[in-house]
Amino acid sequence: MNVMAFLAYNNNGGDKISIPAISSITSNLNIIPEKKCVKTSLTKKVKEYFGGNIDYVIIDFNSITIVPYLTIHDYLIKGVNYTPFIRSVMLIKQIQETLAPKYIIGVIDNGVSRKLKKIINYKGNRKHSTHANLSLTSKNSDNLYKVNVKWLLEYMLAKKYMYLDISYGEADHKIAFFIKNLLLEKEDKNLVVLSADSDYLQLIPFVNIALYRQGKYVLFKKGSIECLNEFLGFDIINAAYYIFYKALVGDKTDNIPKILSEQKTKNIFKKYSEELLEVEQYINPENFINLIKKDLGQNENERQNKKSQFFKNVYAINMFNEEIFEKNELIMLKNSYKQMFKSFEEENPEIISQIKKMFKFLFNYEK
Hints:
7-stranded mixed β-sheet, 15 helices, two-stranded antiparallel ribbon, globular, alpha/beta
């Protein structure tokens, strides 16, 4: 199956940016009828809902168990807060009992893309870089983050069927890299991603998503847009357009500028609903923005500025965009992907030794 094709466009004479597009599977995105979203705790019924045997469960630990429980205690407890680690292990055990996947892959944040900072001042609105980089030791919360990640890493690497990626980069882009490579393997795989970050909804064309919300999981079946439509409150036509929706409404938490209001964006999707049925044409970001260009502003200058910002927003939001990694960062991520399969095959102390050597500062840290 051709999972994705990469389209290139020129951003007003600037650098070329690669944007992933849906190609061969676009015609199959609307085949699963769902009357409403399913919101539930993790049970064996979730496994059945996602099609039975699950090959991989991929967890964004930062959004579900680490950062939420770390920040709660940052200013309440002196010393080491072990709640994030305990919550992570509890989640793993719950996944084993209910979803029973062949393999569990965990991913954590370890730094923010330098390229995104230059292009869009990505996350520049945040007061400090807490939880962003394992090498930081300037703040108490950073140290607590390192301790919990270290414990979780040692716990997961001790199990033959588990792996935790701590290579440089944010969890969402690294998870997308893992998914792309897993799906490009010859055999079909049933993947389920667990996260509390709605940006992962752009992965619906490729994998099942369990989105954590207030103690429950909202379930999004691979290839279905019915629950996505209910979640967003309008008909997005095709799950492949979710990146463009996010690029238009922006994301204050990541410092991604808003181009249009949510209501105006929803109206645009309704206005151009017939045209947007031609997914293979309008999944190209330049074709999409040219289609709606007249709705971006009252004069040409305003429309051009918003068009330029749209391209930058798509570049930042698109989780499959490997261009955000520096060369050495991408090499580290590829090595991590290879190490994952080695750790699945056998309990190999050399792998743990290599990881400890690579992240010496982490394992030498004393609380």
